[in-house]
Each structure stands twice: as structure tokens, then as C-alpha cells.
Amino acid sequence: MPTFKFAKFTSGILAAAFLVACDPASLGMPAASRTTLNVAGQPINVTAPSGFCIDEQSTSIDENGAFVLMSHCALMGAGGPIDEDAIGAALTTSISTGGLGGEGSDTLQSLEDLEEFIGTSQGRALLSRSGQSGAVHIISTTRNNDVLYVLVDDGGRQPISGLERRFWRGFLELEDHLTVISLFGFEGAGVGDQGGLDLLASLATGLQRANR
User: What is the mean pLDDT for each group of 10 consecutive residues in the chain (212 residues)?
Assistant: First the structure.
């Protein structure tokens, strides 16, 4: 069965990353819209969508992959116009050391295979923020421009309070590295399903262009 090493890596630091991003003491730190990470000896470029900045304090790399958190630039003291619809959302990018076929199973060779896999108990655990597959409901899936998008409702334990239980995840390959992108909204922010998908698709497009 697939192991997906990045899933364990991401879940271990997600709560800490959000706390750093929301810490007022971190505001005013230099904010960047682009960074290059060395993942398993290969440079991967990560770019934030318009209006978002990379939280460099939360960026992590180890033998399992890399993790990047992005918040609205206004929240990071970077100035610029405030998008009321986007300011209540955070984006993450998790890059695995291997690709679809190198994550523990020869059966996953395409996004179609992955879409079928996430319908299983192990696949729903991958989608969950807590690893509790029984609390996860897949609302919808769609594939577009070599990206699989999944709208998830997670009724399990949340990494921090105040996060909406409904969120988007996306799956794509960057330079043969399986990459998971996510959009998390905060309660009362009103990002919405379509708005969240549009933001996540903007992130995916930027990543694909930066790594051609």
C-alpha cells in the first residue's frame, strides 16, 4: 500500500506553522513571494499567488520532503492592498521526495489512480488534517491542467482552533515530485468553495510555470 511519506511530515508541523504565522511577533519579518527548495538534491521553485507571501519561518525541509506555508501579505506586515475574501485563508505546499510511482506502490501511476485511492480508508486519512479517516467526507473531486483537486469535509480533530472543517487539497507532480497543495479557511472568513478553488488553482498554475 502507498506510504506517502510527506503526509506524516506535514501533519507533524502544520499546527506549529499556523501558530507562527498568526503570532503578532512574527509580523514585520521580510516577506517573499518566491523561494527555491532543495528536495532530494533537486531544486524546486515555490511561488505564492498574487497577494500571498511565503512564511519563511515556517518553511521546513527534511529527508521526507519540504513544507511551505503562505499567508496573505497584509498579515505578514508586507503592506499592499487587502483582499477581504483571501485574507482569511492560508495556503500550504508539501513536496515529497518521490513521485506518484515512487511513493510505495506501483499501482499509483496517474492522477486517475490517485483519485481512486483517496476514496479508500487510507486515502481519506491522507486527506485528513488529523489522520482520522472516519471523520473525512469527500465532497467533490475534479481534474484540471494535470492537477487533482479534492474538496474535503473533516470533522476530526483540527490542528488549531478556528479552522473551517471544509477545505481544498490539490495533487500534482513538480519535476517528478508528488506535491500536495492545500487551502485552509478560517471560521467566518467567507472564502467559499469556489473562491477557495480559484486560489488553489492559482497556486498550482504558478508552481507549474515556475518549474517548467
Answer: 45 47 46 90 94 89 91 72 64 91 63 91 85 88 96 85 88 94 83 91 97 89
Kindly list the structural domains of the chain, giving each domain's residue range(s) and its CATH number in brackets, ordered by start: 5-210 (3.40.1000)
**Distance, CA of 158 to CA of 130 (rounded, Å):** 6
Phi, psi of 196, rounded to the nearest 5 degrees:
-65, -40
d(CA 18, CA 1): 30
510505495: which residue's cell?
A: 104
**Coil vs helix vs strand at 90:** strand
Instruction: Give the three-class secondary structure for 29.
Output: coil
Q: In this structure, are residues 186 and 197 in contact, taking their beta carbons and an 8 Å threshold?
A: no
What is the H or E stretch that residue 42 is in? strand 42-47
State residue 182's pLDDT score.
94
Helix/strand/coil for 77: coil
Cα separation values, 29 from 17, 58, 196, Å: 15, 12, 26
